[in-house]
Amino acid sequence: MIRVLLVDDHPVVREGMRGMLGAEADLAVVGDAASGPEAVARTAALRPDVVLMDLRMPGGDGVEATERISAEFPDSHVLVLTTYDTDADILRAVEAGATGYLLKDTPRAELAEAVRAAARGETVLSGGVAGALLTGMRRRSAPESAALSSREAQVLRLAADGRTNAAIASALHISPTTVKTHLARAYEKLGVSDRTAAVTQAIRRGLLPDE
C-alpha cells in the first residue's frame, strides 16, 4: 500500500484529492496539511511514501517544505501538484528535490499512476512541464556573455557614456521609445531595475562592446 500525504491550503481540494486517490486499491491517504511547515511536521509524524504538495500557500511556501522533506526524509518523495506552470516555479520545485511536477488539471488515472511512479522514485512531469523545465535549465546554463542582444549591448554602451535616451536614439538612428524598450529588456535580463545598475552589471560581465 502506498501511503500519501496531501498538502494544500484549500480544504475542498484536499477532500477532492482524498476521494480520487482513495478509490485506488493500492493508494491510501494517511493525512493532510494546509501549509509548508505543517507538511514537514506531518511528514515527520506519518512518514508517507508520497507527499502531494501544492506550491503557494499562505501558511508557508511549498518549495521550502519540499526542500526540507527531501533533505530530512528522503524516503518520502514529494510530488508537486499545482496550478502554476511557469519556468521559475518548475525549476525551484525540481531544484528543491521534488520527484515530479503535475498540474491540477491532470486526469484522475494519470494522477494515480504518477503517485505510484513517485513512490518508486521515478521522475514524473505532466504535459508541457518537461519542455518548460528544459527551457529553464538552458537559460540557467547559458553563458552570461549571451545574455544581451547586440542592440541592447549598444544601447547600454552609450548609456554608460552618460548619454540620454534621445542622444542614444540619434546615435543609433532609432526612436527614443525603442531605446526605452531595449533598456527595459536589458534590465530584465540582468536582473536590475535602473540604468546605473544595468551598466554596472553589464561591465562586470564583460557584455559592453568597445567604443
UniProtKB/TrEMBL annotation:
Indicate whether Phosphoprotein appears among the record's keywords: yes
Which PANTHER family does its entry note? Answer: TRANSCRIPTIONAL REGULATORY PROTEIN NARL-RELATED, TWO-COMPONENT RESPONSE REGULATOR
Alphabetically ordered keywords of this record? DNA-binding, Phosphoprotein, Transcription, Transcription regulation
What is this protein's record name? Answer: DNA-binding NarL/FixJ family response regulator
Could you tell me the Gene Ontology terms of the biological process aspect for this record? phosphorelay signal transduction system; regulation of DNA-templated transcription
The opening ranks of the lineage are: Bacteria, Bacillati, Actinomycetota, Actinomycetes, Streptosporangiales
4-aspartylphosphate is found on: D54
| Residue intervals of the HTH luxR-type domain | 141-206
Q: Which residues are in the Response regulatory domain?
A: 3-119
A molecular-function term among this protein's GO annotations: DNA binding
InterPro entries linked? CheY-like_superfamily (IPR011006), NreC/VraR/RcsB-like_REC (IPR058245), Sig_transdc_resp-reg_C-effctor (IPR016032), Sig_transdc_resp-reg_receiver (IPR001789), Tscrpt_reg_LuxR_C (IPR000792), WalR-like (IPR039420)
Among the Pfam families in the record, one is Response_reg
Source organism of the structure: Nocardiopsis aegyptia
